[in-house]
Write the structure tokens for this entry.
Amino acid sequence: MICSGASINYFSLMRTLFAVSLGVALFLALRVEGARAQAKPAPVFTHADTIRGSNTPQRAWWDVAFYDLHVKVNSADSSISGHNAITYRILKPAKEMQIDLQVPLVVDSIVQEGLELSARRDGNAFFVTLISPQPKGARKTVTVYYHGKPAVAVNAPWDGGFVWARDSLARPWIATANEGTGASVWWPNKDISSDEPDSQRVALTVPDSLIDVSNGRLRDTTLNADNATTYDWFVSNPINNYNVTVNAGRYAYFSDAYEGERGKLTLDFYPIDYHLDSARAQFQQVKPMLQCFESWFGPFPWYEDGFKLVETPYVGMEHQSAISYGNHYKNGYSRSAGAPHDRSGTGHGLLWDYIIIHESAHEWWGNNITMKDAADMWIHESFATYAEGLFTECQQGRRAGAEYTIGLRKTVRNDEPIVGVYGVNHEGSSDMYNKGANILHTIRQLVDDDARWRGILRGLGKTYWHQTVSGKQVEDYISRQSGRNLSKFFDQYMRTTKIPVLEYKLDGPRLSYRWNNVVRGFAMPVKVTTSPNTFTWIQPTESWKTTTVKLTRPEDFRVDENFYVVAKDLLRPATDSTTARIAR
């Protein structure tokens, strides 16, 4: 978005205020860190968590090839009915198959090759007894027929299920959101993120007054005898389960195109009809966003399926090729119709639409590259949040981008690790957003070569194109391509709640320094001032080191604020402006 003159003045004012206030804000955040960063009690997991979150023997033997999903949405009684034909490849012979569907939904029948199969239910999973042979290498299809009233998402997208809403003209407005909860909250599937279909059909039948927008391309529209309309969408690429979506409302439509790295990308926009003019204005941010992200991350991953923004009755979600948008056509972040805010507190985030930028970034981070296990959700959220700073950099300059990301630190709780517990559908701390962005920003400083850093980000997308990955794969790739062994770095920032403390003693020209509050073997280099306003690399370890500096005043010593660390002066008493401060 091109800034107006008023915006430029505002931006300059906010930069000045930021420079004055961030040091105090970050210090105060650190002061309360000890009180609020108490480790959470260790979570207790159940048998149901293992069934939901692990690659059970009844899942491991088959690989999803295609989902053919048909669902009728009944707004009159908030119910759904339908079937999903699951085509799969057999990796090894087996007799029992796990298919997930959450209560209170009911399975009517499960059919393969004309035969109805029996199944035992264990909570939210059905274990189906197969009759026909399942030879290795063969492809088979099993169809699950079901109905019921799915869980209602009262606080979407933070809880999962259906949203049965009304627009401002009291017309039905229906949507789904189920990240974390799982796609099986409304349709039967193999509800684990490590297995995606190669492609998928999404055929949604809705009351005839409504238009349904789902993932991929619209192939057909059919008016049925009961005056309901079926919208037949097709996704020609792999898609993770929670991204499959229903959006049914009284939509208007307009389109555009973007000439990107892989040619022409179609842009389709579906606002509620009375918001058409607002959408035409606000969605102009899409093209500069795509240009920025393609530059940093590589080509948009879904040229075949297109880019869509669809207005929803909740704030937003990264549904692949059909991004949910509910930010009230305002810049900043607006969870309600009230005044939007900038999560960084710098003012930079008020110059762009948070939902357009953050949720679109997930097309690369979360949709193109998808976590195998919920414990590695940081792959989705850390990179998408970091992308906010990169977009700020694209629009407002490098300094502004850094300030935006650094500003996010004040919200970090450090109450539990970013990496969750594997095999039980357990995400780590929500610090994966803002702390995760600052971890990536710190790695950029360590790489110390923007061309190489851009190559790492683009290389991740190319190497793991349309794949599911583990956190370790991402960590190892960054280590290899950066030329640094970052294993201790990731252990420190991702698997503990401790922020590295650079302890130092400045006695005349003699500077002594070491790392404290770190994992064994942590030895991250960092930039500090060894002469006024000049940053130089030092190589701290857990042992004391010394060097000579040219600083006339102790307060002239600073750690480069781009490193997410704490600086602690051991020779001077703690005050609000000197010791134990996040690098500033």
